[in-house]
Structure formats: C-alpha cells, structure tokens
C-alpha cells in the first residue's frame, strides 16, 4: 500500500512537470508574443517592445526562462515588468499584466469562493444522486424507478448554463424566493449570509450533476443486489436496510467515487458558469477575465493550478478504492 502511494505520487509529480512544460511553451513560445499582449504595436514603439522582452526575460534561453518561472514555486522572486518592480512572495508564478500583482496570490484570494461553491454543490449532488439512485434500484421496474430515470434524462438534456440562468432570473430577480447571490465570508459576514448567497448555486449544481450520479448509482446498486453475497445475507434473515447499507452499498459506491473525485476536482478548478451567472468572484471568473484580456501569466498559473487539482483528485480516488471496497487490491 505504501509503495503504491509513493509510485502514484511520483507519477503525479511527473505529470505536473510535463503539464508545466507544455503550458510554458504554449503561452510563452506560442503564436502570441507576451510583449505584444502586454503592449500592442499600435501603442508601443519597437524600442519599448524590446525593453519589455528584456524585462520579461524573453531574450534569455528557453531552459533558463523555464527554470526561473518554475523556481517561483519554491522561493520568492523579484520581477521587473513594464516599468514596474515587484517582490513576488513565494509561491510566485509571475505578475499579472492587468493587475500588476502576483498571479498565484490573486487566484489564492479567490479560492475560498470557488471552494465554497464546489464543496456545497458536491455535497448536494452526491446526496441527491446517490439516494435517488438507491431508491430507484430498490424499486426496479416500478413507476418510481421509471420516473427517476426519466427525470434524470430530461434534466441532463438541458444545458447547465441555461438551467442556472433561468433559475437566477426567475427565482432571484423575478419571484425573489432566494436572496441576491454571491460569496460572503462566513467568518466576516456570518454563516447565514454565507449560506443565503450560495444556496441557489449549490441547488443548481446539485440538480444538474445529480442526474449522472442517479444513473450510475442505480446501475451499480442493481448489480450489487444481484450478487451472491447479498442473497446470502438475505437468506440469513438480515433486514433489508442492513443488507443494502452494509453489503450492497459499499460495492455499488466504488464507480460513484471515481466520477465524484474528478467532478469535484473540475469544480475546484473553477465553476465558470456558476460564478459568471450568480456573480461569485472565484477562480473560474478570474480565468475567464484573464482569457478575455490575454493575461498570459494569469492564464498559465490558472492552468497549472487546475491540472494540480485533477492530478491530486486521481491519486486520492485510487487510494480510496482499497478503503471502500476490500476486494480491490493495489499492486
């Protein structure tokens, strides 16, 4: 077990290094010149562009630039860019062209909002999807089962951004059933304002994502309930809820853990539509703003952080397999 975890961690680090190389090559050696992104030719003279390239370090060899760029993960750096001088505290992944601040610290300040949306939404869609799937599996072939499957397919056919936008227009601005959405710190503004501002985003994420969890958990539960060990447990006289909870559920939840880990990582990388529609100042909105303004350091840092979330989620999911299902053996 320990050896497997070490190997997975090493593989994860190698993947992140490969991603960082690709990100660096795309954003700093791609079709767009970082100096032109900072100052277009219509506003900059050739001499000023050369000065910008020198200040950004673009006139240095590529390996040296990559080492200096990635060294910001382990130490502070002093950066001069566009006539400004900034001491970028560790960790530092460059300075934003627009805000003239450390991109990592700027994104980190927005992380609590994204994490709050992702965690609340994940809890909602896991509870709704898992319980509805188990409920349908225990009543296979009945009207309740067909209604749950049909409803999940219908909701899944609606684009999430349309569902969230309609909910905001009608439930917040139209009927006023929910307070104005947005992120409020639970420590500064209080828990009631925190929950009130995120209740509708959590509900929309829960409804939209729960459809696939309902279908996955239903299918896995149906297979688990037909296993020999479940029939043996029933033959011993165990109550049905004990059979479902202690025997069938533990095996049926394994495929659900896979998609849950990845979905949660993608939400941590930025709930873009949710933040845009409900006015939440999170990492996803910062990434969208960086793309619109061609803020290359911000985009590259956002991409690296998103990749780190996904890699870590894969490692955690692989380790959890052996905890949830004892039949799984990690070589």
Automatic annotation (TrEMBL):
Primary location group: membrane
GO biological process: transmembrane transport
GO cellular component, one term: plasma membrane
Gene3D superfamilies: MetI-like
Source domain of life: Bacteria
Pfam family membership, one: BPD_transp_1_N
Record's subcellular location: Cell membrane
Keywords of the record: Cell membrane, Membrane, Transmembrane, Transmembrane helix, Transport
Bilayer topology term: Multi-pass membrane protein
Domain ABC transmembrane type-1 span(s) in chain numbering: 111-317
Transmembrane intervals: 9-30, 113-135, 147-171, 191-211, 248-269, 299-324
Record-stated family: Belongs to the binding-protein-dependent transport system permease family.
Name the UniProt record assigns to this protein: ABC transporter permease
Record organism: Nocardioides agariphilus
């Amino acid at each position: 077990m320990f050896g497997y975890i070490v190997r997975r961690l090493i593989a994860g680090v190698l993947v992140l290094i490969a991603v960082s190389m690709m990100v660096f090559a795309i954003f700093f050696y791609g079709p767009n010149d970082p100096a032109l992104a900072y100052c277009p030719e219509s506003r900059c003279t050739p001499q000023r562009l050369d000065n910008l390239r020198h200040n950004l370090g673009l006139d240095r060899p590529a390996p040296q630039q990559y080492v200096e760029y990635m060294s910001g993960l382990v130490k502070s750096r002093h950066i001069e860019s566009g006539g400004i001088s900034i001491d970028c505290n560790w960790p530092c992944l460059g300075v934003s062209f627009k805000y003239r601040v450390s991109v990592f610290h700027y994104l980190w300040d927005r992380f609590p909002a994204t994490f709050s949306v992702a965690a609340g939404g994940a809890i909602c869609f896991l509870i709704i999807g898992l319980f509805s799937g188990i409920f349908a599996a225990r009543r296979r072939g009945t009207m309740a089962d067909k209604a749950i499957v049909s409803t999940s397919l219908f909701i899944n056919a609606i684009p999430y951004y349309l569902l969230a936008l309609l909910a905001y227009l009608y439930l917040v601005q139209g009927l006023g059933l929910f307070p104005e959405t947005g992120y409020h710190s639970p420590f500064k503004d209080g828990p009631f304002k925190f929950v009130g501002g995120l209740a509708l985003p959590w509900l929309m994420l829960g409804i939209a994502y729960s459809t696939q969890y309902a279908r996955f958990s239903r299918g896995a539960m149906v297979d688990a309930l037909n296993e020999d060990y479940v029939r043996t447990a029933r033959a011993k006289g165990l109550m049905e809820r004990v059979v479902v909870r202690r025997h069938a559920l533990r095996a049926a939840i394994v495929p659900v853990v896979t998609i849950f880990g990845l979905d949660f990582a993608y939400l941590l990388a930025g709930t873009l539509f949710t933040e845009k529609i409900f006015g939440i100042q999170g990492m996803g909105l910062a990434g969208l703003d960086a793309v619109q303004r061609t803020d290359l350091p911000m985009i590259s840092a956002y991409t690296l952080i998103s990749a780190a979330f996904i890699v870590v989620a894969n490692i955690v999911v692989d380790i959890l397999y052996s905890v949830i299902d004892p039949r799984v053996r990690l070589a």
